[in-house]
Write a structure and sequence with these properties.
The complex is a heterodimer of chains A (148) and B (594). With 148 residues, chain A is an alpha/beta fold. Chain A has 5 helices and 5 strands. Chain A has a 5-stranded mixed sheet with strand order 1-4-5-3-2. Chain A starts with 7 loop residues before the first strand and ends with a helix. Chain B has 4 domains: 127 residues, no CATH class; 185 residues, no CATH class; 110 residues, Response regulator (Rossmann fold, 3-Layer(aba) Sandwich), CATH 3.40.50.2300; 92 residues, Response regulator (Rossmann fold, 3-Layer(aba) Sandwich). The chains are: A alpha/beta (148), B alpha/beta (594).
């Protein structure tokens, strides 16, 4: 699968992690990848086990139960330049996130691109490039470079 | 020093070879037991309940099934599924046309064929047009398999038959002149050095199976698995030991005798190396009694517990087996008691010796002693790991990311272990598994796979644990690797010139049009580093027009942004770095701030 320009939203400002997840989820809904119920399952999953991955990125996705709401595989990107804290409210450590990848995966079709994202984002300077990206195309181009 | 090193590399070599041999046997122990039980119970006319029909199973199991499984496993160890298949095909060539069970032949043809296939694949894989992979895969294996099976039939089989005959003549001779017990003088010290599996499954079990096939039982199965010597030593500790070694001995004795886990008594012997004499005396006695009194097993007793031994004991040899085990225990008890009585140590060194044992075990498995930090994850050795699984809640996102990262790192480090991901609920408990999870999921994963090695990471993307894991696996393949370079040369001080750190009241990163996100991240990373270093100066991200022109501001920028800053401000202090997130200068700045 490929990352679609329409699934990338840049320069967003959100007050809470739930809102960041909802935004990433809404992109998946708008892209025809999931039913709206999937968003609640994304929130539930993040409350259960955080989808904060370190290096300023988070990859919210649904729970196992939420898989039934997936219509097709898709990945959305929300860039939050000012950052949003993904830590639990009762936790005093900060888990700042600047790039959110919303994920809906069926039959492992998303693994290719997810692995590109993982390898790319394991270098924090690359995450900075994503956080500074000025156009959806730039995000796509950045992630494309991986593995070449 | 050099000699010591040589010694240890020989030990590692023996251990590696032994591990390889026992690796072919280990997964098939179950099949060997199935055959052993069938033979013990139903063999005509010697079984407990002779049955002529079931008897038909016994020979094909021994002659075909077991060698094929071993050839299959041996091939699999070299080249996964393809290796396994060709290993089995080629092994058949050694089996056919002989009545002797071809274990050794299987242990040679299995890995050898897989290795050849791998070489062939390497040579051709690039040249195959896409769409033809399947045809290539099947026919290359088929054709090579045919050639190897024929080769094995005409060349390897005769060699094996001759070799087997000589070996059995040798073993027979040793048994006939009652010299077999002397072998224990070598076996016991080797056991304590954790070569027990290598000796047991690598040498004694294959020979024992051949002997058992001929005469219905073999003493060879008992030589390493006999729990008597260990039991005697532990009993001696119970009565004459001191301190913690005395109080821990009863539990260890139960595990040794009923659980058959010999490793449990090794630390006690290491604590007092002269106790090896007790183990040797016990082992020699046991084997002597087994041979004289007609003891013997129908199949390998694994683990070497009294229960397993009784379960696979040949009909009519219970007496010999029990007397042998208890005789061994009594003799080793007496010798150990004498040694311990003369001992003046306090006995509190047990903990330390146990530590030493752990490091020996890791050394003998070709692994560096792990640091205290990951001691928890080294309870089970990396040498046993056959695959790595990342587990998360749904198996959709985070685990997939972690898996692809580690796969990438493995690839770069030349480690050939499969790395996959799954949902925690799909985890299966198997040996040789390393499970990596987020900290929150560790408990759930442990419930699903209690026998797997567990590593928890807080941060899937940049966990230092990955590099530890890679280093541990690498250490396995490159035991002789040079030690890490001595401490890095101290970084030169004074790279930051002309900054008056005493005036700084606030550190700033600049948010400007195209660098909003990275400034946010740099601020977060820097204030994190400050907090860790116990520094109190606040760190803020600001817009370029939000600053007071005052030396109390220390602004960290990239060279490109410095120009802009200079146009607006005269008095603020500026440091340029090439990389806002990872520049080495940042660490020095933290050090100098308040």
């Amino acid at each position: 699968m490929k990352l679609e320009k329409s699934m990338i939203k840049l320069n967003q400002d959100v007050p809470t992690r739930d809102q960041a997840i909802r935004m990433a989820g809404q992109l998946l809904v708008d892209g025809g990848c999931v039913e709206p119920e999937y968003i609640d399952s994304m929130i539930a999953r993040n409350n259960d086990v955080s989808t904060y991955m370190g290096n300023f990125i988070a990859i919210p996705h649904g729970t196992d139960d939420g898989k039934k709401y997936i219509k097709k595989t898709g990945i959305s990107v929300v860039q939050i330049p000012m950052g949003v804290d993904f830590s639990n409210p009762d936790d005093d450590t900060e888990q700042l996130v600047t790039v959110v990848f919303g994920i809906a995966g069926l039959n492992n079709e998303h693994l290719n691109i997810l692995s590109q994202i993982a390898i790319f984002c394991s270098d924090v300077s690359n995450v900075a490039k994503l956080a500074d990206a000025q156009s959806p195309q730039e995000v796509i181009d950045l992630l494309k470079k991986v593995g070449k | 020093m050099a000699q010591e090193k040589k010694k240890s590399s020989i030990k590692v070599g023996i251990q590696k070879f032994g591990t390889f041999l026992s690796g072919m046997i280990m997964p098939n122990i179950g099949a060997i037991i199935a055959w052993g039980l069938t033979a013990a119970i139903f063999m005509t006319p010697n079984g407990w309940f002779p049955n002529a029909q079931i008897n038909n199973l016994i020979k094909p199991m021994l002659n075909y099934l077991l060698p094929l499984l071993i050839g299959y496993t041996g091939g699999k160890m070299v080249d996964d599924d393809r290796g396994a298949v060709i290993g089995a095909v080629a092994t058949l060539g050694v089996i056919v046309g002989t009545d002797a069970p071809m274990f050794l032949g299987a242990m040679i043809m299995g890995p050898f064929s897989a290795w050849l296939l791998k070489k062939l694949d390497n040579a051709f894989q690039d040249k195959i047009k896409s769409g033809f992979e399947m045809i290539y895969n099947n026919f290359s294996l088929g054709i090579l398999g045919m050639i190897l099976a024929i080769f094995a039939y005409f060349i390897v089989n005769p060699i094996m038959v001759t070799g087997s005959r000589w070996a059995s003549i040798g073993v027979d001779a040793i048994i006939r002149v009652h010299l077999l017990p002397l072998a224990n003088i070598i076996i016991e010290p080797a056991k304590v050095l954790f070569l027990n599996n290598a000796i047991g499954n690598g040498i004694l079990v294959p020979l024992g199976i051949q002997q058992a096939a001929k005469v219905g039982k073999s003493v060879l199965f008992l030589m390493e698995s006999n729990p008597g010597p260990g039991l005697g030593i532990l009993l001696a500790f119970m009565l004459f030991g001191k301190g913690s070694s005395k109080s821990s001995a009863p539990g260890a004795a139960i595990i040794e005798f009923f659980g058959g886990v010999h490793e449990i008594y090794f630390p006690y012997v290491l604590m007092k190396p002269s106790l090896i004499l007790a183990a040797m005396a016990g082992g020699v006695t046991g084997t002597f009694l087994f041979s004289v009194l007609g003891g013997g097993l129908k199949a390998a007793a694994s683990p070497g517990s009294i229960l397993a031994i009784l379960l696979v004991a040949a009909k009519g040899s219970y007496f010999g087996n029990l007397v042998g085990v208890f005789g061994a225990a009594i003799v080793s008890f007496v010798v150990a008691a004498i040694i311990l009585k003369r001992d003046k140590g306090t006995g509190d060194e047990l903990a330390e010796k146990q530590k030493q044992m752990k490091s020996m075990k890791s050394e003998s498995k070709g692994q560096e002693m792990p640091s205290a930090q990951n001691a928890q994850s080294s309870v089970k050795s990396y040498a046993d790991i056959k695959k790595v699984i990342f587990a998360c809640d749904a198996g959709m996102g985070s685990s997939a990311m972690g898996a692809s990262l580690l796969r990438d790192k493995f690839k770069k480090a030349g480690i050939k272990l499969p790395v996959t991901n799954t949902a925690v609920r799909n985890l299966k408990d198997e040996d040789g598994l390393l499970v990596i999870t987020q900290e929150e999921l560790t408990d759930r994963a442990r419930q699903k796979a209690p026998n797997a090695m567990q590593v928890s990471v807080g941060n899937f993307l940049s966990s230092p644990k990955y590099d530890q894991i890679v280093a541990n696996f690498k250490a396995l393949t490159q035991v002789e690797d040079k030690p890490e370079k001595a401490a890095k040369p101290a970084e030169k001080p004074g790279l930051i010139i002309g900054i008056d750190f005493s005036k700084v009241k606030e550190v700033n990163f600049i948010r400007h049009d195209e660098h909003l996100g990275s400034a946010t991240m740099a601020t977060s990373l820097f204030s994190d580093a400050m907090k860790k270093a116990g520094k109190k100066t606040p760190v803020k991200a600001v817009k370029i027009n939000e600053l007071d022109d005052d030396p109390s501001h220390l602004v960290i920028v990239t060279p490109a942004a410095k120009k802009n800053l200079k146009l607006r401000y005269a008095d603020i202090q500026i440091i340029t770095v090439d990389d806002l997130l990872q520049d080495k200068k940042l660490k020095q700045i933290v050090d100098k701030l308040n």
